[in-house]
Design brief:
Largest sheet: 6 strands, mixed
Order of helices and strands: EEEEEEEEEE
Strand content: over 45%
Helix content: under 10%
Strand order of the largest sheet: 2-10-9-4-5-6
Radius of gyration: 13 Å
Structural class: mainly beta
């Protein structure tokens, strides 16, 4: 199974911004919903944001107003713009387009 490829993570100070990118396997038209999840050490993977082919979005309460998910069909990509980052946003971020198929993830670290 071809996996999504995440990129854009890094180390930033609290209050900073990062933009994560997800390249979906094949045409994005084949995926109705694409989502970003994150996992911190010792914790379960949790949904951060999702977007449907119609452009409907859903966000975890902890990131509402700070994160924005977008979908670029021509690029077969989904983005996660993260603003006003907090130390509690530190995690490995994963893109998911097919249930059970995960990429390598991209590490986000936010220093206080």
């Amino acid at each position: 199974q071809v996996r999504p490829v995440e990129s854009g993570g890094g180390l930033v100070q609290a209050g900073g911004s990062l933009r994560l990118s997800c390249a979906t396997p094949g045409s994005i038209d084949g995926y109705y919903t694409v989502a970003w999840y994150r996992q911190s050490p010792g914790k379960e993977r949790k949904l951060v944001a999702s977007i449907t082919a119609a452009g409907n979005t859903n966000y975890a309460n902890s990131v509402k107003g700070r994160f924005t998910i977008s979908r670029a069909n021509a690029e077969n990509s989904v983005y996660l713009q993260m603003n006003n980052l907090k130390p509690e946003d530190t995690a490995v971020y994963y893109c998911n387009a097919t249930p059970g198929v995960w990429g390598q993830g991209t590490q986000v670290a936010v220093s206080s």
